[in-house]
Each structure stands twice: as structure tokens, then as C-alpha cells.
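for the record, two folds in this file. i put them one after another cuz i was lazy. first one right below, seq on top, C-alpha cells after. the second one comes after a little note so u can tell where it starts
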Amino acid sequence: MVSETIEITPEDIFGLIALSGDAKASYHQAILLMQEGKVEEADAAVKAGDATLKEAHSIQTKFVTLEAQGKTATVGVLMVHAQDHLMNTILVKELLGYMMNMQNEINQLKGMDQK
């Protein structure tokens, strides 16, 4: 059986990097907003980050699906770099919930109004 080769385009690679970076920036913004006691704005930043991360993840899912179907791709350093960005953003997302809860407790102990 001859395997079909797929091409990972620079647009997909740089899209993955850019979307991952945008999502991570939203998550960082969310924790900064929480530190200021701006809970609603922080929640909105998390939701924006989640939407952007979903877009980035869909790019990765496309390639995982194609490979699962028996198609192969040549993976270069840029694609590895893009995967690193996505992985790090997913890790930030996983830790963000804990950090938001901790910051909320800190804000309550400080007597900060929830804005």
C-alpha cells in the first residue's frame, strides 16, 4: 500500500503559532484582570482565549485526522515549533482555572470589591 503524502502549508503552521499566541495572551490578560478584581472582564478574556484556542486546535486536529487515515506529512522545525506553542497554551489554560480561583480567594481576603 502506497501512503499518500500531505503538505503542511506555511499558512497552517503560522496560523497555529499565531492563534496559540493570541489565546495565551488572552489567558494572561485574564489573570491580570483578576488581580484588579475585574471578574467579569477576566471571564470574558478566558472565553475569548478559549475560542481562539479552539481555532488553533482545529488546525492540529486536521493533521492528526489525516495521519490517522494513513496519510503522512514531512514535519519540519517550524511545525515542531508550532506544536510547542499549542502545547504551552494548553498548559496555561489548564493552570488558569486554579490561578483564577486562587486570585479570587486572595481578592476576597484583601476585601476587594468584585467589579
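(here's the note) second protein begins now
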Amino acid sequence: MSKIGVEESLTNIQEALREKGFDVVEIKQEADAKNLDCCVVTGLETNVMGIIDTSSKASIIEANGLSADEVCREVENKINSIQ
């Protein structure tokens, strides 16, 4: 089963992903992003300089402006592309 990390403020997306059968982990800090297949973030803390330190090799999906269904589709697409 794919393990998906979702920022703690995105509870509607967490619920939608759980309904789809994903193992959802709430991301509260950087360490929570380890060993995940995909991460869903708000996108509100965009790195302006373009320099990103990642603690995870997981795909990142910015949920800003997307519905829960759209995020679920994005997650499914990312997971299917890495399998």
C-alpha cells in the first residue's frame, strides 16, 4: 500500500485519500516526510529562491487551488508512474 504524507491543515484531503485506500500520514515537521511515496502540501511556503532541501525522495503535490478529488487524481497518477 502506498504511504502518502499530507500537511496537517489539509484534513479534507487526508479523508479523501483514506477513502481511496491510501495509508495517510500527517506531516507536521520535516522528519514526518521520510519514507513516503508522495507528499501533499499547501504550497503556501514556496521556496522563493528555488533552493529546496528535501528529506524525502517522494513526489510533491501542491494542493493550492485544487479540490480533494483533483489531489486524489494527482496522487494516483504519481503512484502509478513510480510502480
